[in-house]
Design goal:
26 helices; 592 residues; alpha+beta; 5-stranded antiparallel beta sheet; 4-stranded antiparallel beta sheet; globular; 9% strand
Length: 592
């Protein structure tokens, strides 16, 4: 092993460690590694920037705009909402909802699908006394399974396609993955409807409603001089026996009083930290002299006249809010909304609202203006998962909605017939949307997830370094030395497992970029069809079911479903095994 190979390998191992321990946002970690490779001279400027001109990466950027435009119309949301209302049984509802959802995910970005349908499903479940936890993980998994069916189903497929073209090989057609994707989707959905359904947490009826409503939200209230119980003990002030609410801490200047005893005296200027039922927190505001700290001039009383609304948002894994306190992130001035409560699964946050440092998956309860959802529905910082009574989508022209869907279907036909490449078809679609004013340039910009593109482009540069230094070939030879005596099927399983482990650590697209050069080296050494290896890596990189952080959609439903980390392991591990065995066997018989 040469010094350059050792340097790149150490750099990669350091990168993995930083990603595992969440030292910084994944896109910034991977971009930093790319810069180090550039400064060290391992990559030239052209090689480092090659990922930013990769066809697959640019296609993803265009696809964000196309999917956002179709999603904006709200037509699909309305159709699915009505479709779901007509079903009453658990299994029947899952069948009616998740089969079409998987089909939509084959042609649309699955992140906005999950963001849109999470509140719809949650409300539907609550209206019928069904545990939403039985439906939300399957929602995420169904969209992931659907994304494996076509080239445009997920960014991973497009990244692998772009890399194949860079290698001088034939890329994927629109339906190259379909022969593997459809069987995987069917087997996965059957599992979710049967065994997976039983493994999901279920606390039905009233008990489940109480559990969901009393998630450990954290809220802060300021004691003013108007408070009628100044100088009295907590118990005398009526702050001890509160229905569904618990006073966990008092902040007095630089002093923190915790635990709070019934004999603790209340002083003016005290900040009271409560946890419990958010409805009770709202009622508590009615007590004269207690002011809810929202960090904004918007007040809960405004909810009565409809000038404000409560919004539930989940912090994104790519959010610029991560690793910052709410106060330091200047949440109020950035979004004109106040954080009145924070919920983090399985962890009680003992802190003032403004001092809470946000993490991926945190649920924020916001009090915001009525236009908040419309303005920030496409925000990269969090996923808005509130039930939308008057969403912006429903205010859009129905004609524009149908027009966007027809354009998308037309592009799919053109790609299928071989008249246009995926990149050209998406570029044409975006041009049509802009010239016909279905969307504005500003909206198009908002639909693009630039942090995802930065991560993918940087990963492509790192992949180039692995090939250039010979590290990819060296790793391929190590795998071959171990697996070749055991046969090609075992090698395919090894490639799948490695890719799948990487996708849980460094996200799906980056995992595909790291593994594809190794896979191509293995294919060349064995003199086998590289397309089969490429399909295997694309499937393995997308099949992220075991953790809530491996795939964005898993993270979106994490808070709203009230899940524990172990729920994903319990339900996702058997599904991962099923997808792995199915894909390896089909790929082996189709391509080898």
């Amino acid at each position: 092993m040469s010094l350059e190979m050792m340097f790149v390998l150490i750099l990669l191992l350091t990168m993995f460690a930083m990603l595992i321990f969440e030292v910084a946002r994944p896109d910034m970690v991977i971009f930093s590694v790319l810069i180090i490779l550039l400064l060290s001279g391992i990559l030239t400027v052209d090689e480092a920037l090659s990922g930013f001109s990769n066809e697959g990466m640019l296609t993803i950027a265009l696809l964000f705009i196309v999917a956002g435009t179709v999603q904006k119309s709200g037509l699909i949301d309305q159709m699915m909402g009505k479709w779901l209302q007509n079903s009453h049984s658990h299994k029947g509802s899952m069948l009616r909802f998740f089969v079409p959802t998987s089909a939509f995910s084959a042609f649309l970005n699955n992140t906005p699908i999950v963001v849109t349908f999470t509140p719809i499903i949650k409300k539907w479940c609550e209206d019928r006394g069904i545990a939403p936890s039985k439906f939300l993980i399957p929602l995420s998994y169904a969209t992931i399974l659907g994304g494996m069916i076509t080239l445009m189903g997920t960014s991973t497929n497009l990244v692998v396609h772009g890399l194949l073209l860079d290698f001088g090989l034939e890329g994927f057609s629109l339906f190259t993955l379909t022969s593997v994707g459809i069987p995987i989707a069917l087997i996965g959905l059957i599992y979710l409807f049967t065994i997976g359904y039983k493994l999901l947490p279920d606390n039905k009826g009233f008990g489940q409603r109480i559990k969901e409503d009393s998630k450990e939200y954290i809220a802060e209230m300021l004691v003013t001089q108007d408070f009628g119980h100044l100088g009295k003990r907590v118990e005398q002030a009526g702050l001890r026996e509160l229905n569904g609410l618990y006073l966990i801490e008092i902040i007095r200047g630089d002093e923190r009083i915790s635990p709070v005893r019934s004999t603790t005296v209340i002083h003016g200027g005290d900040r009271l930290i409560f946890t419990g039922l958010i409805s009770t927190i709202a009622d508590l505001q009615k007590m004269k002299g207690l002011e809810l700290e929202t960090g904004t001039n918007i007040d809960l009383d405004d909810l009565k006249d409809g000038s404000t609304k409560l919004v539930d948002a989940v912090v994104s894994d790519q959010s610029s809010l991560l690793s910052k306190s709410i106060k330091r992130s200047q949440f109020r001035s950035r979004y004109d909304a106040g954080v009145i409560a924070v919920h983090r699964n399985n962890e009680r946050i003992r802190s003032k609202i403004g001092d809470i440092v946000l993490k991926p998956g945190d649920s924020l309860l916001l009090v915001a203006g009525t236009d908040f959802v419309e303005k920030y529905q496409q925000s990269k910082d969090f996923f808005v998962v509130s039930p939308l009574d008057t969403p912006a989508a429903l205010n859009q022209s129905s004609k524009k909605g149908w027009f966007s869907i027809i354009i998308l279907l037309s592009m799919i036909v053109m790609v299928t017939m071989g008249w246009l490449s995926m990149f050209k078809a998406m570029a044409l679609a975006v041009l049509v949307f802009l010239t016909t004013k279905v969307i504005t340039p500003q909206e198009a910009k908002e639909y693009v997830h630039f942090n995802v593109l930065l991560l993918i482009a940087s990963s492509l540069g790192i992949g180039t370094a692995m090939r250039k230094t010979g590290l990819a070939e060296w790793i391929a030879n190590v795998l071959l030395d171990f697996g070749e005596p055991l046969g090609l099927v075992v090698i395919l399983f090894i490639i799948y497992i490695l890719t799948n482990v990487f996708t849980e650590i460094i996200t799906n697209s980056a995992a595909a970029v790291m593994m594809l050069p190794i896979g191509i080296e293995i294919a060349q050494s064995l003199a086998v069809e590289p397309m089969g290896i490429a399909v295997l890596i694309a499937i393995a990189a997308s099949a992220s079911f075991i953790t809530p952080i491996g795939y964005q959609t898993n993270l979106i439903v994490y808070g709203p479903g009230g899940y524990k980390f172990t729920d994903y392991v319990k339900v996702g591990f058997p599904l991962s095994l099923l997808v792995m065995v199915t894909s390896v066997l089909i790929i082996y018989y189709v391509w080898f």
